[in-house]
Amino acid sequence: xxxxxxxxxxxxxxxxxxxxxxxxxxxxxxxxxxxxxxxxxxxxxxxxxxxxxxxxxxxxxxxxxxxxxxxxxxxxxxxxxxxxxxxxxxxxxxxxxxxxxxxxxxxxxxxxxxxxxxxxxxxxxxxxxxxxxxxxxxxxxxxxxxxxxxxxxxxxxxxxxxxxxxxxxxxxxxxxxxxxxxxxxxxxxxxxxxxxxxxxxxxxxxxxxxxxxxxxxxxxxxxxxxxxxxxxxxxxxxxxxxxxxxxxxxxxxxxxxxxxxxxxxxxxxxxxx
Length: 273
Ligand SMILES: NC(=O)c1ccc[n+]([C@@H]2O[C@H](COP(=O)([O-])OP(=O)(O)OC[C@H]3O[C@@H](n4cnc5c(N)ncnc54)[C@H](OP(=O)(O)O)[C@@H]3O)[C@@H](O)[C@H]2O)c1
Prior knowledge:
8-stranded parallel beta sheet, 10 strands
C-alpha cells in the first residue's frame, strides 16, 4: 500500500523523522524512563527545550536506551532568558552539556522575541561549528515569520507551531514550504483539549482501519508532511502514537477532517508575543 515515508528531508538535506516524542511536562525519573521506553518502541525523534527543565533527564533516557547517538534526532530550544547573541551562545553549550551530547540535530528559538535575529546568529554559528545539524524557530506566526526572514540570513529549516485537527494552518504550511521551512506540530493531539481522542468523526474514520481517533488525528498531519511530536507517559499510548504508517486516509477522509478546523488557537499565550 502506498504510504507516507517515516521521515522528511529538511532544506539543508538533513533527514527528520515524522513522529517524535514530546517531553514538555515530563520530569525526573519519569522523563528518563519515558524517553528510554519510547526509543525501545521505535521513536527516533525526541523533543525537549531549556524551558522544560528536563534536558538532563532526556539525555539520560537516550543514554539508558543504549541506542547510538546518531540514530536519534534530538531537538532542543533556546528561550527568552538567553536574549542576546552571547547568552544564546552560552545557552547552546549548556544545553549540549545537559543532554550529554556534542550536537543537537535541531536547535530552535523557542518563541519570537525582539532579540530573535541576534539570538539566531548564535544558532547559525552553532550550525557552522557542527553543534547543530539544523536550526529553526518555534511559535513564529505569519507576521513574525515574514519579519524574521528579512533579517535571519539562513532561512529556518523548521517552524514548530501549535497544529492539530482544530487548528490546521494549511496556508501557512504552504508559505513556509515556499521558503524551505518545514512545519512541525506541537500539541498534535491538542494537549487533550477538545477531546481529540473521543472525537466522533476521527473515531468513525479510524475504525475503518482499526485505528483510534488519536492515531487518525496524527495520521492526518503526517499525511500532509507535517512532523508531529505527541507526548505521552503511557507505554500503550506511546505505541499507539507511532503506529500510524500502515494506513492511508482517502481524499474524502482528509476533507472530512479538514472540516474540523476552527482556525484559531487553543492556547491564548501564543498570541501574546
Ligand atoms: N514549541 C513550543 O512552544 C511547544 C509548546 C507546547 C508543546 N511543545 C512540544 O510538543 C509536545 C507535544 O505537545 P503537548 O504535550 O503539549 O500536547 P499533545 O502531545 O497534543 O497531547 C498530550 C496529551 O495527550 C495525551 N495523550 C497522548 N497520547 C494519547 C492517545 N493516544 N490517546 C489519548 N490521549 C493521549 C497525553 O496524556 P498521557 O501523557 O497521560 O498519555 C497528554 O495529556 C510537547 O510535549 C513538547 O515537546 C512545544
